[in-house]
Amino acid sequence: MRWCFDTSALIEPWVRLYPPDVFGPVWEKLEELAQAGAIVAPTDVRLELERQKDDLHDWAKSLPELFRDPDRPVMEAFAKIVNDHPDFMKVNSTKSGADPFVVALAEVHGIPVVTYETTAKQTAAPKIPNVCQARGIQCVSIVDVLRAEGFKMK
């Protein structure tokens, strides 16, 4: 386990940056990394993708090893994160609440978070990069992952 993906780290590249019809090898490499257990995401990320019912959801569904149910250490970290950053998870939100689980999974395993979220302004509710920074967790992009894993387009 080397990288923890949030939902935006899958949606942004799939839809806008590296669509699979043009950048198929990128997604083949990510499949390989998921199957090897190098990239993970909390189950709640899969739940957010299920709402789309699109080809990204189908791709993710074909990789059950990508998604991790929270174990006790992750649940304990989740509770501490929500307590320490109360505005991080909106109680009445329509989102599944994956963000605190992403940070918790990364924190427990000491791995970077892969996200396309940007840091929120001080007056806004914190986003993944804000909470990661406060907790000493590195945030990276999918390109950082691909570089570190030795991927090159040919």
TrEMBL record:
Domain of life: Bacteria
Pfam families: DUF4411 (PF14367)
InterPro entries assigned: PIN-like_dom_sf, UCP008505
Protein name (Swiss-Prot/TrEMBL): DUF4411 family protein
Organism: Ralstonia solanacearum (Pseudomonas solanacearum)
Taxon lineage: Bacteria, Pseudomonadati, Pseudomonadota, Betaproteobacteria, Burkholderiales
